[in-house]
Amino acid sequence: MSNLGNKNKKNLNRQVFLFLLFSIFYLLLSTVAFAQTEDERMAELRAEIERLEQQAEQFRGSIAQEQAEAKTLQGEIAKINSQIKYLENQISLTGSKIKKTGIEIGGVETHISTTQEKINSQKNAISQTILFLNRQETEGLLTLLLKNNNISDFLRQEHYANSLNANLLALIDDLRDTKSELEDQKSDLEAKKGDLESMKQQQSSQKVSLGGTKSEKDGLLKETKGQEAAYQKMLEEVELKQSLFFTELKELETKIIQGGLYILRIQAENLPKKGTDLFRWPEDNYRTTQVYGCTAYARCKRASGPYGGKIHNGMDIKVGYGTPIKAIGDGEIIANGKNDGWGNWIAIKHPPYNLVSLYGHMSAFEFLRVGTQVKAGEVIGYEGSTGFSTGSHVHLSIYKEFFTYINEKNGQLYFNYDNTIDPRDYLP
């Protein structure tokens, strides 16, 4: 009977061992085959991303050079063409990163599936052990003792089965932890992919915005037949219209204030001391083209100045046509529109002080309605040259009192010019 017991024990050991060995071998083969395919695709994408990033660096250098030289209409068009090429490059680069992240997600999903298969394999092995233990319990102690030479053989067999079962349970716990970590990694990669897809959509919007600006400049080039003298004269006419606009604006504001004919009126309260970092700049890597106050361009001591004799009530900064414009702080969009002077504009109220930030001359809005809550750094539009503007930039004003009203002459939504503060008081 002892030979039969030993034989049963050996058969069980061999079955469990062969089952585990086959399962692990199969899983290793499938993992290696997938890893080879994944590694090849990842290597190709890494090479593509590296090439596009090198190309992007060349475009950035070209744009920076043309930025300094773009003092003519043809120079502006050349700069826009470079920016369009750069955006196309960025769209391709983002697309490659999305593909790379997709492959990484696929790899993690495969590892999760492989881990689950290992868990299932170990569960099957545990089932075999449980069957063995159950058979021992069913046969009864006397029968089991008769199958073995002595109690020592029986106890060794019992100990082996229990030990194997404990080890397999510990392995399952480890595999479950690994699966949980892989699922967290997959969630992070999916969030990253979502961010990249959102970035690609924004880049496509920028490209559309640049295309529209280029069409405008091409039209001007055709209209002036490439004659820079004619183009410069057109710029002077824009400045004259700008001066007339702000002179009229001053008169309109006086009537609105006297009659209390506001549509919306926001008053800031309990402002912190100057130098407090409340906000962030609306563009990255920007260049300041006009500061706040009585600037050389504003000529604020002369009624014929471009702002009707007033100071420049904000800051003008630029990066290039179609650059994303971001909210300088958390807040609520309280008004937006388009008028002759400011072109496309958006106003945001920022708690807790109720300061209002105003962004003008945008080429296009992001699709955000009045009443929308925005976060600092969220894209609200794109840099442009709409309204009375002689070049692409974003005009940023910060108001301690802000109000809107309708100009009855043209039905456009206007806002006040005065009661602003220097944006640098609350920017880093």
Looking at this protein, list some descriptive labels.
428 residues; alpha+beta; Glucose Permease (Domain IIA); 5 helices
Architecture overview:
The protein is α+β, with helices and mostly antiparallel strands. The chain folds into two domains: 2-220, no CATH class; 237-425, Glucose Permease (Domain IIA), CATH 2.70.70. It is built from five helices and 14 strands. Strands 2, 3, 5, 6, 7, 9, 11 and 14 form an eight-stranded antiparallel beta sheet that branches. The protein has a three-stranded antiparallel beta sheet with strand order 1-12-13, with helices on one face.
Strand percentage: 15-25%
Poorly predicted tracts of residues: none
**Helical percent range?**
55-70%
Please state the CA-atom Rg, rounded to the nearest Å: 36 Å
Q: Report on the biggest sheet.
A: 8 strands, antiparallel
The H/E string reads HHHHHEEEEEEEEEEEEEE
Instruction: Give the overall silhouette.
Output: elongated
- Write down how many β-strands occur, each being a DSSP E stretch of 2 or more residues: 14
* Count of DSSP-assigned helices: 5
Please identify the structural class as seen in this structure: alpha+beta
Q: What's the number of domains?
A: 2
Mean pLDDT: 75
Report how far apart the termini are.
Answer: 88 Å
